[in-house]
Amino acid sequence: MTRLRTAVPAPIRRNYALTFGIALLVLGVSVGIIGYKGTVLIQADIEQRVTEDSGTVTAQEAKKLETWNEKNRLTANMLSRSGPVAGGDEAVIDDDLSQ
Predict the structure, then answer these.
(1) Which 8-state DSSP code applies to residue 4?
(2) pLDDT given for residue 17 in this prediction
(3) Measured between alpha carbons, how far is 56 from 68 in angstroms, rounded to an integer?
(4) What are the tens digits of pLDDT across the range 28-77?
(5) What's the CA angle centered on 85, arms 82 and 90, to 5 degrees?
(6) What is the 3-class SS of the chain, one letter each residue?
(7) What is the pLDDT of residue 90?
(8) How far apart are CA 81 and CA 87, in angstroms?
(9) Stretch 20-34: mean pLDDT, rounded?
(10) What pTM, to 2 d.p., does this model score?
């Protein structure tokens, strides 16, 4: 304890309000530093999760579009080989497609 007394200047030891103020300042700075570091860690975690979620959603949407595109390709292929389209008569094709 004597080491602490010799390390702390006499005006601070004699003034209780000043001692209390310094203690509050040290506590406030400590809480601020801990809060900042916690916020940085949480922010990094959230950014990582959002990036992963975005990648998953993008992959799912790409798969849906690929399936939709393949279905449309098969439908177009089937229609192009149908009798009315192969015949080339636009009126017959229009009539067939509108049914």
Answers:
(1) H
(2) 85
(3) 18
(4) 999 999 999 999 999 999 999 999 999 999 999 999 999 999 999 998 88
(5) 150
(6) CHHHHHHCCHHHHHCHHHHHHHHHHHHHHHHHHHHHHHHHHHHHHHHHHHHHHHHHHHHHHHHHHHHHHHHHHHHHHHHHCCHHHHHCCHHHHHHHHCC
(7) 76
(8) 10
(9) 94
(10) 0.52
Tokens 């992959």 correspond to: 59
Report the distance separating Cα 33 and Cα 25, nearest Å: 12
* Token reading at 59: 């992959």
pLDDT for the residue numbered 24? 95
The letter for the amino acid at 18 is L
* Amino acid code (one letter) for 79: L
Q: How far is CA 30 from CA 16, 23, 40, in A?
A: 21, 11, 16
Q: Distances from the Cα of 52 to the Cαs of 9, 35, 40, 59, in angstroms?
A: 55, 26, 18, 11
Structure tokens at 13: 């030891």
